[in-house]
Design a protein that fits this description.
- The protein is mostly helical and 239 residues long.
- The chain has a domain at 20-173: Helix Hairpins (Orthogonal Bundle), CATH 1.10.287.1490.
- Helices cover 77% and strands 5% of the residues.
- It has 4 helices and 3 strands.
- It has helices at residues 4-83, 90-170, 176-188, 211-219; strands spanning 194-198, 201-202, 232-235.
- It has a 3-stranded mixed sheet.
- Strand 1 (194-198) and strand 2 form a beta hairpin.
- The radius of gyration is 40 Å and the shape is rod-shaped.
- The mean pLDDT is 94.
C-alpha cells in the first residue's frame, strides 16, 4: 500500500527543486529576448545616424550648388564690368551698370544663404557626431551585456544540471501514477504543482476549502487536489 504521507513529502521536495528549475529555465529563455531588445535599440540608433548623415549630405550638396552659382554670377559680373569700357553711349553704360548692380545684389543674397548653410552644416556635423557617439555607446553596452549574459547563462545551466540531477534522485521514489499526475499539473501551472493549505484556503489560488477537504489533506490518506486550480494540496506544519 502506498504511503501517501511519504509520497507527499517526496512531492514537496520535488516542488522545491522544480521551482528553482522553472526559475532558471525562464531566466535562460528571457536572456536572448533581452538581447534582442537591446539589438533593436542599436538598429533604431543606426537609423538616427543614417538620418543625420543624409541631412548633412543634403546640406553639403546644397552648399556646393550655392557656391557654384555664386562663382558663376561673380564671373558674369567680371565679364559685364569688362564690357563697361566698350560701350559707346551713356544709355548702354547705365543699362549695363544696372545689370551689374542686380547681379551683385543677387550675389549678396547668395553669400548670406551660404553663411546660413555653413552654420546649418556645422550643426548637422555636431548632431551626426553625437548620434555616432550614442551608437558606439549602445554597441559597447550591447557587447558588455552579451558577454555578461553568456557567463550568467553558463552559470545557470550548470546549476540547472545539478538541480535536475538532484531531481533524478527523488523521482524513482515517487509512485509513477502520482508522479505523472504531479508533472501534468506542474506543466500546466508554470512550475507550481503543489499548494499548502493556509488558514483553510488553497495557498495556490486562495479559494476557501471545505472543512472536510482540509481534514482529508491533514490526514494524508489520499492525494487531494484543489477544485479550482487543480494543484495537489498539502498540510503545512507550523514552525
Amino acid at each position: 500500500m502506498t504511503d501517501i504521507a511519504q509520497q507527499v513529502d517526496f512531492l514537496i521536495e520535488l516542488q522545491k527543486l522544480d521551482k528553482k528549475i522553472y526559475e532558471f529555465q525562464s531566466a535562460i529563455t528571457a536572456k536572448p529576448k533581452e538581447l534582442e531588445n537591446e539589438k533593436a535599440g542599436i538598429d533604431e540608433q543606426m537609423l538616427h545616424v543614417q538620418h543625420a548623415e543624409d541631412q548633412l549630405k543634403q546640406l553639403q550638396l546644397l552648399h556646393k550648388e550655392k557656391e557654384m552659382e555664386l562663382s558663376s554670377k561673380e564671373e558674369n559680373v567680371k565679364k559685364l564690368q569688362s564690357q563697361l569700357f566698350q560701350v559707346k553711349t551713356n544709355k548702354e553704360y547705365s543699362a549695363l551698370q544696372n545689370e551689374i548692380e542686380g547681379l551683385k545684389a543677387d550675389n549678396s543674397l547668395l553669400e548670406e544663404e551660404i553663411i546660413v548653410l555653413l552654420d546649418k552644416i556645422s550643426e548637422a556635423e555636431e548632431l551626426l557626431h553625437k548620434e555616432k557617439e550614442r551608437s558606439n555607446e549602445k554597441k559597447k553596452k550591447f557587447g558588455e551585456t552579451e558577454t555578461r549574459f553568456k557567463t550568467e547563462i553558463e552559470h545557470m545551466e550548470q546549476q540547472l544540471l545539478q538541480l535536475q540531477a538532484n531531481r533524478q534522485k527523488i523521482t524513482p521514489q515517487v509512485d509513477k501514477k502520482i508522479l505523472d499526475r504531479y508533472e501534468r499539473i506542474l506543466e500546466g501551472r508554470n512550475g507550481f504543482a503543489l499548494a499548502p493549505v493556509i488558514n483553510g484556503s488553497c495557498g495556490g489560488c486562495n479559494m476557501d476549502l471545505p472543512p472536510q477537504m482540509v481534514n482529508e489533506v491533514q490526514l494524508k490518506n489520499n492525494i487531494v487536489t484543489c477544485e479550482r486550480c487543480a494543484r495537489i494540496l498539502f498540510w503545512q506544519e507550523k514552525a
